[in-house]
Amino acid sequence: MLGSLVASAARLSFSRAPAAAVSATFSILPHRDVKPPRISVNWGSNDLTILSDGERVADADNPRGYYEWELIKQLPQEPTCIGEAEGKAVKVISQLLFVLPAGRDYQIIFMERPLTEVMASQAEMIRRRGTSSAALTEAALIAGFQAHLNQVNAWLKHSPNILLCRVEYHQVLRDPMWAAETVQRFLKRTLNLESMVLQVDQSLYRCRTQRNA
Question: Which of 47, 72, 185, 190 has a 20 to 30 Å separation from 197 between CA atoms?
Answer without folding.
Answer: 72
